[in-house]
Structure formats: structure tokens, C-alpha cells
Write a structure and sequence with these properties.
9 strands; disordered C terminus; 2 domains; Alpha-Beta Plaits; 7 helices
Length: 197
């Protein structure tokens, strides 16, 4: 009995390039972009549309800020990689606040404030990370991130790549910083409103 892989192999042997295409698994992202003005929207549409796996790009104007709705094929690209690609072509991707998750991490191995800066700069640059505050005194970090884009395990792995040991904090540790997330998000929103005013 012949299967599809045998057929593809024979076609390839005849000198033709073939591949088995998977059905499109359509998904959508709705994000706010920084570094773009109204007059540059057509260029942004063209650049984002050129990313492999992107099916459609739409820029509806909402509340005087630049939002983009991206339809993409989950078989070809995941949200994290899509955010990375958008950032690599020059746009800052701001996560939607309703997708924000928070994590308190215990970090072992920090010896000075330069360790704090190293962790902060590395994690802040990850697509989907909204805010990180690293404390040398407490040997901990507080992270706000878009859970539809990046997972906590990716954040932890990135910190571990810097030769630190990381664990998720206990409930007692989290109680110490209760209310911080609301304060941070409020400050970020105020800054954003001043920028667009």
C-alpha cells in the first residue's frame, strides 16, 4: 500500500520540490504597537504581513492609540515568535492588560547590583514581558507578563541561562508585595496616556 510520504518522495526524486501542507489553524492577536504613527500604518501593514505565517493585518483605531489585529496560522508561527519578529522589524509590542499575569520569583546567585541589571535587561527585552522588578536585598523578582504570548517557564529559563537558580515564590512571599501590580499598571497607563496626548 502506498502512503502520502511515498508519493512525496517519488515526486521529489523527479526533481520537484514538494511538501505536505497542513490545514491552516487560524488564530488572532490584538495588541498595541509603539513606535508607529498614523501615516506609517500602510508600511507597518506591509512589514507585518511579510512575516511567515501572518494571514491578515488590520489597524482599527481605538481610543486614539494604535492597535493591530493580526490573524496568523498557528502551524507556522506561535505568538511568542510573532512578537519577536514584530519587534525585530522595529515596533514595540505592548501586551493587552487583560492578559497580564504576575509571578514572584526567588533568585539565588545574585552577588551585586550588576546581577540585578543583567536580569532586568534580559527579561525586559523578551516579547510579552510588561514589567520586571528585581530586588538584590530580597533575592527575588516580580514579573508582569502577557500570558497569551510568553510563559513563566520561558522567563525562568532565560534567567537560568544567566547562571542563576530560580524558583516560584511561596504565598508568604507574594503577600509582601500585594498591590504592586495595580500600582505598576496604573503608572504605565498614565505614561502611555501622556505619550498619546
Amino acid at each position: 500500500m502506498i502512503n502520502i510520504n511515498d508519493i512525496l518522495k517519488h515526486i521529489n526524486e523527479l526533481g520537484f520540490d514538494t511538501e505536505l501542507k497542513q490545514p491552516i489553524k487560524n488564530d488572532n492577536l490584538d495588541v498595541e504597537l509603539g513606535g508607529i504613527s498614523d501615516e506609517n500604518i500602510p508600511i507597518a501593514i506591509e512589514r507585518i504581513s511579510s512575516i511567515k505565517g501572518v494571514l491578515n493585518v488590520n489597524f482599527p483605531l481605538k481610543n486614539d492609540s494604535i492597535h493591530v489585529q493580526i490573524s496568523y496560522d498557528k502551524n507556522q508561527i506561535d505568538p511568542y515568535t510573532l512578537y519577536q519578529k514584530i519587534q525585530s522589524i522595529g515596533y514595540k509590542v505592548n501586551p493587552k492588560l487583560e492578559n497580564i499575569s504576575q509571578a514572584h520569583l526567588r533568585i539565588q546567585g545574585m552577588h551585586c547590583n550588576s546581577c540585578v541589571m543583567n536580569i532586568t535587561q534580559t527579561i525586559e527585552d523578551l516579547p510579552g514581558v510588561h514589567h520586571i522588578k528585581v530586588s538584590f536585598d530580597d533575592q527575588s523578582a516580580y514579573v508582569l507578563y502577557d500570558s497569551s504570548v510568553i510563559t513563566l517557564s520561558i522567563i525562568i529559563k532565560e534567567i537560568e541561562k544567566l547562571d542563576f537558580q530560580v524558583a516560584v515564590s511561596t504565598a508568604d512571599d507574594r503577600d509582601k508585595s500585594k498591590g504592586i501590580s495595580i500600582e505598576i499598571l496604573t503608572k504605565k497607563k498614565e505614561k502611555k496616556e501622556r505619550f498619546y496626548a
